[in-house]
Amino acid sequence: MNKLPLWSLVLLSPVLLWLGWPPFYTFFFLFFGFIPLFELEKRMHGKKTWKFFFRIYSALFLWNVFTTWWVWNSTIWGCVTMLLLNSLFMCVPWLLYRFFHKKIGDPAQYLFVIFWLLFEFLHHRWDLSWPWLSLGNGLANASWLIQWYDITGTIGGSAFVLAMSFLLWKFISHKKRNYLFYAAGLFLFVFASSWFNLIKYRMRIHPAAGSMNVVVLQPSFDPWHEKFSRDPRDLVEEMLEISSKGVDTSTDLLVWPETSLVGNVDASNPANDYLVNMLRSYQHLHPKLNILTGADMQSVYRNVSKRPTLTARKTKQPDIWWDAYNSALYLDKNGEISFYHKSRLVPGTEQMPFVDIIPAIDKLAVKLDENSISGSLGKSDSAISLGKEPMKIAPVICYESIYGNYISEFVNHGSKAIAIITNDAWWGNTAGYKQHLAYGALRAIEQRKWVIRSANTGISCFVNPEGEILKQTNWWEKTTIQQQITFDKNKTIYCRLGDTRILIIFCSISLVLGMILFVKNNRSLNSKH
Length: 529
Known about the structure:
Blueprint: H1 6-19, H2 30-33, H3 35-43, H4 49-68, H5 76-104, H6 108-123, H7 149-174, H8 177-203, E1 208-218, H9 232-243, E2 253-255, E3 261-266, H10 274-285, E4 290-302, E5 313-314, E6 320-331, E7 337-341, E8 393-397, H11 404-412, E9 417-422, H12 431-447, E10 451-455, E11 461-463, E12 469-470, E13 479-488, H13 493-528
Parallel strand pairs: 1-2, 2-4, 3-4, 8-9, 9-10
Antiparallel strand pairs: 1-13, 4-6, 5-6, 6-7, 10-11, 11-12
């Protein structure tokens, strides 16, 4: 590797990371993805920082392009901005690593683990959040290896990938076999831990909280030319017709995808909406049926002179404002209606960053098509479970499913199963919807809960608590699928601890190892003198 040109290292790293990422099953390439970048930093140790930054940024930019280029199909401006900014944010851990490597030498390698984990942690928690490429997500198609995610979440997966990368880089650059043995030992330990954790889960007595028969609809409406331009009543009638092929007298829950009800259901009185009443009429034919559906919703504020919320939009009348929501609507079999507004919003299309600081920035929001709404959407204040015990459901809307810690909030609110409703057709037939599906399987393992996945199109399926994908639909298929799912009252260690405590544990381990190496290096230098 010492003989490779610097630009070949810049090109090699993103190719390896791309090959290791879903939808591919060749996850082991991830362990080698950062090795060219470690070598790049080593060989540019004495060069100017801006030259190092240019090369490291180029490599990370290419990784982002190779794995998430498909965002281009939904929004060109948003895609370009995302690629440029996310690559820039990823440079921060590398620049910190370079700074400390010059100051303290090899112990900085352990600090890099801390820097990267902190970056991923913080990147989940601000207005420009785009944690799609958190390293732990890259292992999503290797469920047999990551059954311990119910303890650590994806933070543990990121730490595992980084540790393997360091050990393999040390072996390649120093030609010392002991590093290869360490890497093999770490992999075998993780592999054994995964199977031990899975066996322990299977042997554990799960407190029964009931079961339900679920039907999932995949209507496959074209979001660009059909879904938001057809009469909403026609859409609902067609979805009811398709649903009837799966719903029978034993069905407890029917799940429809994101924004199935188009046309802004009034949040103050959803029972009066004509689309909601079409669903209520359908429930009269199936008395035990509960329905969970995605819906466009709105709140109207009358006789208000000032903007009532940060996301409120002004109408042509000066004293009337309104908020738009991307929501999940739950119609109980007994006639009660509850809802949840999506709270983890996509930057640029559903939420403009820092609009609370600079309100005028909201005017720059991306509009996906001529029928969609631009500007920041309103949202719920916290995670809300829908339904009643024992069938409380986490209504996870699209993008929210990549936030493991946020899903824990639903479970802590009483959710016994996770319903992911989404519309993955914006991206076309690309890797995007396949990656999104794989990340949903991670949520099943982290929480040890069934995942019910209803996509307008993409892939609808069920995922059992072990991360196994069942009854997977095809791309652009109009169909329903059925499954009986069970509820588990237990909360996983990951759910109870949360990302913050787990981050502290891994950072503490890295810091201790770095201090040990620092002391060892100083003793070696003193003995030589």
